[in-house]
Design a protein that fits this description.
seven-stranded mixed β-sheet; single chain; Rossmann fold; alpha/beta; six-stranded antiparallel β-barrel
Length: 256
């Protein structure tokens, strides 16, 4: 495994909504990432919080990396308060990325911050349709990135302020899947379970990106395992064997 450790300069830490931010980092020497890979950030210069945090790479342009994050705890709260010129310790890129299918059309399904894992993928494929579920219209600003890449977007919001009222699965279940050659998905576990179930039923290739609590980021601590199916291993590490998996290799019924 080849990864890189460096100190990154913050170029921009832009608030997208009340709790969502888009962070741009300047990282000399970082290798080119694959869509779906992630980096590990050391947010504090002290031991609190002690562990690094994993963030999907939303966009990369040479040594510039962008991530999208939501304030969810102490670490991301501290991160949101940082500004241009401040420095962060970075390791990465880690994990296995998405398999690129050049044939179109393909379907992308994202829920909440899961959209961050699909950002680079959207730049590498053409003619896709993105189904995105968010809490409200305020969280749909990132859709510009996907439309700029020429993809069709369909929206569901929990409060009905944009698109249809509901969740990503509500519009997913109404889509004619016969015209799609592959499905890519990232979001909450209940959403991924349903997408994987329907994909298997319709015999459509499906890759999912899982989010997991990671301590190391490269498979040593075994802290981010998920139960496996149709593999020689009983468990798979989200950081090492994933975060992108063939959906058929996950034992979904064992994940709560």
């Amino acid at each position: 495994m080849k990864f890189f450790g460096s100190v990154a300069n913050i170029l921009k830490n832009e608030r997208i909504t009340d709790k969502f931010f888009r962070l741009k980092l300047d990282i000399n020497g970082i290798p080119a990432a694959k869509p779906g890979q992630f980096i590990m950030l050391k947010i504090s210069h002290s031991t609190d919080p002690l562990l690094r945090r994993p963030f999907a790479i939303f966009h990369q342009n040479g040594k510039n990396i962008e991530i999208v994050y939501r304030i969810a705890g102490k670490g991301t709260c501290l991160l949101s308060a940082m500004g241009k010129g401040e420095k962060l310790s970075v390791l990465g890129p880690f994990g296995n990325g998405f398999g690129i299918l050049n044939a179109s059309p393909v379907l992308m399904v994202a829920g909440g911050t899961g959209i961050a894992s699909l950002g680079m993928l959207a730049e590498r494929i053409r003619g896709a349709t993105l189904l995105f579920g968010a809490k409200s219209k305020d969280e749909t600003g990132l859709l510009r990135h996907f439309r700029k890449s020429g993809h069709k977007t369909m929206i569901a919001t929990e409060d009905g302020s944009a698109g249809v009222k509901g969740m990503a699965t509500d519009i997913f279940l109404k889509v004619d899947l016969k015209k799609f050659k592959k499905i890519y998905a990232c979001g909450p576990i209940p959403m991924l379970k349903e997408v994987s179930r329907v994909a298997a039923k319709n015999k459509i290739s499906c890759e999912v990106s899982l989010e997991g609590r990671m301590a190391c980021g490269f498979g040593v601590c075994q802290g981010c395992v998920v139960p496996a199916r149709n593999t020689e291993q009983e468990y798979l590490r989200v950081c090492a064997e994933g975060p992108v998996f063939d959906s058929g290799k996950i034992s979904w019924e064992e994940i709560t």
